[in-house]
Design goal:
globular, two-stranded antiparallel ribbon
């Protein structure tokens, strides 16, 4: 999945974090958005080479981390069934990618 996850070469399915420092909590904003806006933000994140973390609907039907990873990998890479998305990168690029989303109440 590109910059989303760099899987280790072993059978555990464990994921190494990308090579960027942890996101400072004070710079995180939660937005509410319709599926179309999440899909557009996902595509913009890819085009702008932003670090991405996606949450797909199927993940809420699983009970553990390995099943979540399998659920994510089963999604179509171009248009996953997104219910949540985190983007990290230059502020201008993140703002453009999330245009149309409103702050979560």
């Amino acid at each position: 999945m590109g910059k989303d996850c760099d899987f280790d070469g072993d059978d555990t399915g464990k994921c190494r974090a990308p090579s960027w420092p942890g996101w400072p909590i004070f710079s995180a904003l939660r937005s509410a958005a319709q599926s179309e806006i999440l899909q557009r933000a996902w595509q913009q994140g890819i085009q702008r080479a932003l670090d991405r973390s996606a949450y797909v609907r199927a993940m809420f039907e699983t009970g553990h981390d390995a099943a979540n990873r399998a659920a994510f990998r089963a999604e179509p890479p171009v248009a996953p069934d997104l219910v949540g998305l985190a983007l990290h990168g230059p502020k201008e690029d993140v703002d453009k990618a999330t245009k149309g989303a409103r702050l979560h109440p």
